[in-house]
Amino acid sequence: ANVVRWEMRTRPFLRTAEFLWQEGHTAHATADEAVEETVRMLDVYAEFASEILAVPVIKGRKSARERFAGAVDTYCIEAMMQDGWALQAGTSHFLGQNFAKAFDVTFQNVNGEREHVWATSWGVSTRLIGALVMAHSDDQGLVLPPRIAPVQVVIIPVYKGDDKAVVMEAVDALFATLKGRFRVKVDDRDNLRPGAKYFEWEQKGVPLRLEIGPRDVAKGQAFAKRRTGGDKFAVPFASAEAVVAEVLEGIQEQLLDAATAARDARTHDVTSYEQFKADLVSKSGFYRVPWGGDDADEGRVKDETRATLRCIPLEQPSVEGLTCPITGKPAHQWAIFARAY
Q1: To pair with 62 at 20 to 30 A between CA atoms, which of 41, 68, 184, 328?
Q2: Distances 29 to 25, 42, 93, 107, 147 between C-alpha atoms, Å
Q3: For residues 244 and 153, is the Cβ–Cβ distance under 8 A?
Q4: What is the pLDDT of residues 168-179, one digit of tens each?
Q5: Is 112 left (phi over 0), alpha (psi -120 to 50) or beta?
Q6: In angstroms, how far is the first alpha carbon of the chain from the final one?
Q7: How many angstroms from the chain centroid is the CA of residue 83?
């Protein structure tokens, strides 16, 4: 569906006046079934972000202050962008019977009695495109993980004059070998030099570029270049399908590993509120707090630092014996604070 919101300050893909939205709703006979579905959809979104977009996320619950209005619980996936700011990448809500009672949505139970349903709601939006761009891209342009890239491999012929026929024969044969398994594009435009084509496809984030010139044809190989960097390397025509598959899988893993390492390097444990406030000025990131505050304390942190409680991670190490550095009260759970888009 498309959604319209009257945003005062828009930001491409992250916060726009109109955007595309994937949304789902389910109704259940019991609260347990609804909660199970809520968490299942959170896992679906987390897996998509990690396995397809190569964007690592933290699964968690929102605080009462950040919870979706009318929900009993809001679950979320939180991602970190390259600048250390947080981005809410998806949400899944357990609505209880609140909306069912408001709109009188009922079902007949096994005893023949009418009951209000237990409901869920979950969604992601084109904000995920913004997350994808901001998590991986560089000064040369887009960097796209192979599993989501519209074009995974671009083949660029390199020739002069009479070499065209022999080069294009090899290009066509390689394209035929790869097209059944990969999303492949041949850039055979005559009005651009090879260097201009390289630059254009780098800007577009294509994961793998294959170049074929007359010398390559004579050697039975193409020369390859990863969008993520590194030296060029030879890809024999005879084993091209297997080599390309291995390289693309390696790029996918490399992007996820790099994003995970960058996130972990910018994740800090908070032991002092004053230090927390000072650190936020100089280094953005996730700040992990043994939290012992309430709604009012959370509001005070936001007013004083512009950081919000992004989530209460589902994975919770023990806080036994820990004191909240912000409130001075005994900690009851870990929470992630960050400045966010």
Answers
A1: 328
A2: 14, 20, 16, 8, 37
A3: yes
A4: 999 999 999 999
A5: left
A6: 22
A7: 15
Comparing CA positions, the residue from 97, 96, 99, 94 lying closest to residue 121 is 94
Identity at 47, one-letter amino acid code: E
Dihedral sign of CA atoms 258, 44, 142, 149 in order: positive
Fold classification of 2-136 (topology level):
BirA Bifunctional Protein; domain 2 (3.30.930)
The CATH architecture of the domain made up of 267-338 is 2-Layer Sandwich (3.30)
CA pair distance 250, 179, nearest whole angstrom? 19
Contacts of 137 (CB under 8 A, 6+ apart): 143, 205
pLDDT tier for residue 299 given thresholds of 50, 70 and 90: very high
Report long-range pairs for 163-169 (Cβ below 8 Å, ≥24 apart).
163/213, 163/214, 166/214, 166/217, 167/212, 167/213, 167/214, 167/217, 169/217
* Strands lying side by side in the sheet with 18-28: 2-4, 18-28, 118-125, 86-96, 73-80, 57-61, 308-313, 333-338, 286-291, 267-269
Q: Is the pLDDT of residue 186 over 90?
A: yes
Q: What is the pLDDT of residues 270-282, one digit of tens each?
A: 999 999 999 998 8
CA distance 91 to 39: 10
Share of the chain above pLDDT 90, in %: 94
Residues of the chain with CATH 3.40.50.800: 153-247
